[in-house]
Amino acid sequence: VEETLVLIKPDGVVRNLTGEILRRIEAKGYKLVDIKLVEADRGRLGTHYEEHAGKPFYEPLLEFMESGPSVAIRVAGNRVIEGFRVLAGTTDPTTAAAGTIRGDLGRDWGLAVQQNLVHGSDSPESAERELALWFD
Ligand code: GTP
Ligand code: MG
């Protein structure tokens, strides 16, 4: 069965939305295989977001991700990689569809990085790489 890496980013943890986000994943029928609270260091975050190195939001993104703990979750289900990204909604919370995690719970705070509550792997290759990075 397919697996993906979901992160509840520091904004989701600080806003006490962990339970609400887990509820949505479970209500969809996906299985929580492993879960932990993580204070990620720069090394891990740099590897996680290496595709964005050099972009204007890259440094603010790493600073934001270092600002507090995230919840890392190994989630399993048929087509869960695509399915979780539909549950999450598009990157910008202002325009993410209502009914999605980002559309219902997120908004643009006018900061240098979009604080959009969650991360989900975007392909089978990313999922394999990211699960190895966050769950050794
Ligand atoms: P993730 O699931 O976190 O990877 O989000 P994503 O796949 O929807 O977005 P992407 O991988 O393109 O970008 C990673 C993260 O960088 C996003 O979730 C945002 O937090 C931030 N980000 C991406 N694009 C922008 C942008 O254009 N402006 C700003 N300010 N932040 C961005
Ligand atoms: Mg991404």
TrEMBL record:
<feature type="domain" description="Nucleoside diphosphate kinase-like">
    <location>
        <begin position="1"/>
        <end position="136"/>
    </location>
</feature>
<dbReference type="GO" id="GO:0006241">
    <property type="term" value="P:CTP biosynthetic process"/>
</dbReference>
<dbReference type="GO" id="GO:0005524">
    <property type="term" value="F:ATP binding"/>
</dbReference>
<keyword id="KW-0460">Magnesium</keyword>
<feature type="active site" description="Pros-phosphohistidine intermediate">
    <location>
        <position position="119"/>
    </location>
</feature>
<feature type="binding site">
    <location>
        <position position="85"/>
    </location>
    <ligand>
        <name>ATP</name>
    </ligand>
</feature>
<feature type="binding site">
    <location>
        <position position="116"/>
    </location>
    <ligand>
        <name>ATP</name>
    </ligand>
</feature>
<comment type="similarity">
    <text>Belongs to the NDK family.</text>
</comment>
<dbReference type="InterPro" id="IPR036850">
    <property type="entry name" value="NDK-like_dom_sf"/>
</dbReference>
<keyword id="KW-0808">Transferase</keyword>
<feature type="binding site">
    <location>
        <position position="57"/>
    </location>
    <ligand>
        <name>ATP</name>
    </ligand>
</feature>
<dbReference type="InterPro" id="IPR023005">
    <property type="entry name" value="Nucleoside_diP_kinase_AS"/>
</dbReference>
<keyword id="KW-0479">Metal-binding</keyword>
<keyword id="KW-0547">Nucleotide-binding</keyword>
<keyword id="KW-0418">Kinase</keyword>
<feature type="binding site">
    <location>
        <position position="9"/>
    </location>
    <ligand>
        <name>ATP</name>
    </ligand>
</feature>
<dbReference type="GO" id="GO:0046872">
    <property type="term" value="F:metal ion binding"/>
</dbReference>
<feature type="binding site">
    <location>
        <position position="91"/>
    </location>
    <ligand>
        <name>ATP</name>
    </ligand>
</feature>
<dbReference type="InterPro" id="IPR034907">
    <property type="entry name" value="NDK-like_dom"/>
</dbReference>
<dbReference type="Pfam" id="PF00334">
    <property type="entry name" value="NDK"/>
</dbReference>
<keyword id="KW-0067">ATP-binding</keyword>
<dbReference type="GO" id="GO:0006183">
    <property type="term" value="P:GTP biosynthetic process"/>
</dbReference>
<dbReference type="GO" id="GO:0006228">
    <property type="term" value="P:UTP biosynthetic process"/>
</dbReference>
<keyword id="KW-0546">Nucleotide metabolism</keyword>
<dbReference type="InterPro" id="IPR001564">
    <property type="entry name" value="Nucleoside_diP_kinase"/>
</dbReference>
<protein>
    <recommendedName>
        <fullName>Nucleoside diphosphate kinase</fullName>
        <ecNumber>2.7.4.6</ecNumber>
    </recommendedName>
</protein>
<feature type="binding site">
    <location>
        <position position="102"/>
    </location>
    <ligand>
        <name>ATP</name>
    </ligand>
</feature>
<dbReference type="GO" id="GO:0004550">
    <property type="term" value="F:nucleoside diphosphate kinase activity"/>
</dbReference>
